[in-house]
Write a structure and sequence with these properties.
heterodimer, A: about 280 residues, mainly alpha, 14 helices, about 75% helix, globular, B: about 290 residues, two-stranded antiparallel sheet
Chain lengths: ~280, ~290
């Protein structure tokens, strides 16, 4: 055993200093947004800003919700992200069960197509997607955005859920077959309940991705009746071009982010597992 | 036979997904290729006209495209490099045992959980030239004499973008590397301890080589992501020659210039560039990306 000399304690001290630095680095920008959102405009535009929200005010939150637009944007985001998540979970479970548990000839080809889809950049299908939405009359509709979001949510969902299905023990399935269950019954009654945690994680990740999406939402919507929250926040303007309402922008940012942060912290373990499964196994 | 039924069922289950893929990826992609050989405007006021490789020839001489490519490459290399170094450091810290590890892990997830648009706005406010907290801290601690307009200065603005991207995406890198670290069996370190290897030697001779597969996968993911950077830059500084990335230039040609033909050509070019990177990584990584079954 090494004796715990001065060097040991110096080492521990340095280590904890590093830990504290990592935490501050990660959390400070969000902390600053929260603090800013509660400050009065005078305190906000001070050359010596306080690190606590003094004096404390809810004005910016009232401003954000006083117009009809931001509430509408929030609902739009919920519809679009929720719709995309639901559809990709239903389709994803079906495809992933086939890819993870059944044997059929072009399985690898299908997997590679799905994997290739996760690689190509959204912007490179921007014009094609524009043409598609125009031709189907889905431009500037919730359905159009949901459809376009399947481009990135579906491959990811299929990929991660395939991993989950493959990890389930074969005996369960065989027992069900022996009892005379059809593969479809096996999927719904035996396999699906077991993939519950996987479904929650993948659904959450798909929801977050759709909730945060900006490029398609910016390009395929006009006006506030379909516009989602990221587009609204990015285009928040003041009364004049020279007056940026930082307090309101920060308040809106906090409103949009707090539910995500809570979800992520609650499902922390599973999200990390899901992220690394989706990525490392890729 | 079960196998025949199984095959039919499998097809039935996969078919909806394949149809969606064909609809939202295959069809748009085909349109992109089609229009890249045409002169066309996105409002379809002018008739579409076949022009062969004219758009591609223009692309080769387009200084704006070259500028965007150069910005994107600089952004990608520097941010992926910093993310890798920082991500590895953070992963090593969280991997070791200490009190409060759970809190640190939760803390580093926060930047990841924040929407890119929101983090762009948060940093835009922090980097504000007059009221921004970063300038206040820099001036109050005497590190700089005068406040810096980070986002207005063409020499600093791209690096400000890199800083925000690094903050936002290092957690992802750290998590992937942490997963890699957890796969390394602990007993090889015990053996190394007995042999008297220092921590530093253990890191270079054991940890790093054994972490390479995870590192390669993480690098591929982050590089591909950085190459298509759009949100951070577009929200913070808009369309600006000093920071314009390939994705931003692509959207500008399509939407601002309404040029469906040339915009599609730029899209194809981005796809080709991404595929070059994928190909290079595959070659370097060898069997780094796993085949199935």
């Amino acid at each position: 055993m090494r004796t715990k000399g001065l060097g040991y304690y110096a080492g521990r001290l340095l280590f904890y200093a590093l830990v504290v630095f990592i935490v501050i680095y990660s959390v400070f920008p969000f902390y600053w947004a929260v603090v800013s959102s509660f400050k009065t405009s005078d305190a906000l535009f001070s050359s010596n800003p306080s690190f606590l929200p003094t004096p404390f005010t809810l004005t910016h939150y009232q401003n954000v919700f006083s117009g009809a637009a931001f509430g509408r944007n929030l609902i739009n985001s919920l519809i679009v992200a929720g719709g995309a998540t639901l559809i990709c979970l239903v389709l994803g479970v079906m495809a992933a069960y086939a890819l993870g548990r059944l044997r059929f000839p072009p399985k690898n080809a299908v997997l590679y197509i799905v994997l290739a889809m996760t690689m190509f950049p959204q912007v490179s299908v921007l014009s094609g997607m524009f043409v598609l939405l125009r031709e189907t009359n889905l431009f500037n509709t919730h359905a159009g955005l949901i459809l376009s979001y399947l481009l990135f949510t579906l491959p990811f969902t299929v990929w991660v859920l395939t991993g989950y299905f493959r990890g389930l023990p074969r005996e369960l399935e065989e027992a069900a077959y022996v009892d005379g269950a059809t593969p479809i019954q096996t999927l719904i009654q035996v396999m699906l309940p077991l993939t519950g945690p996987g479904l929650v994680t993948t659904g959450l990740l798909a929801f977050i991705a759709a909730w945060n999406e900006y490029l398609f939402a910016l390009t395929f919507t006009i006006g506030n009746n379909v516009r989602t929250v990221p587009v609204a926040i990015a285009s928040f303007g003041g009364a004049t071009p020279f007056e940026i309402p930082w307090g309101s922008i920060m308040a809106a940012s906090v409103v949009v982010t707090v539910p995500l942060v809570i979800l992520v912290l609650v499902f922390q373990q599973r999200i990390v597992a899901g992220l690394t499964a989706g990525a490392v196994k890729g | 036979m079960l196998t025949v039924r199984q095959t039919r069922l499998a097809w039935l289950l996969v078919l909806p997904t394949l149809l969606v893929v064909a609809f939202v990826a295959g069809y748009p992609l085909a349109q992109v290729f089609y229009y890249s050989f045409h002169r066309a405007d996105i409002s379809f006021v002018e008739p579409t006209e076949f022009v062969g490789f004219k758009n591609y020839l223009f692309l080769l001489q387009d200084p704006d495209f070259r500028g965007a490519l150069w910005n994107t490459l600089r952004f990608t290399f520097v941010s992926v490099f910093l993310e890798t170094v920082l991500g590895l450091a953070i992963a090593l810290v969280i991997h070791s045992n200490f009190r409060g590890r759970g809190i640190v892990r939760a803390a580093i997830l926060i930047p990841w959980a924040i929407p890119t648009v929101v983090s762009a706005k948060m940093w835009q406010w922090m980097l504000n030239d007059i009221y921004g907290v970063i300038n206040v801290i820099l001036v109050n601690t005497g590190l700089v004499a005068n406040k810096i307009a980070f986002l207005a200065n063409p020499n600093t603005v791209l690096w400000a973008m890199v800083a925000v991207d690094v903050w936002k995406t290092t957690p992802f890198m750290a998590l992937l590397l942490l997963a890699g670290l957890q796969l390394i069996p602990a007993d090889i370190y015990e053996a190394a301890d007995i042999d008297g290897a220092s921590r530093w030697q253990q890191f270079w001779t054991l940890t790093l080589p054994l972490l390479t597969p995870a590192l390669v996968v993480a690098l591929i993911f982050r590089t591909l992501d950085a190459l298509r950077v759009f949100d951070v830059i577009f929200v913070m500084v808009g369309v600006n020659t000093a920071t314009r990335s390939l994705a931003i230039y692509n959207r500008q040609t399509l939407i601002d210039f309404q040029d469906l033909g040339y915009g599609s050509t730029v899209s194809v070019a981005i796809l080709v560039i991404i595929f070059i990177f994928v190909f290079l990584y595959m070659r370097v990584a060898g069997q780094g990306v796993r085949g199935e079954d």
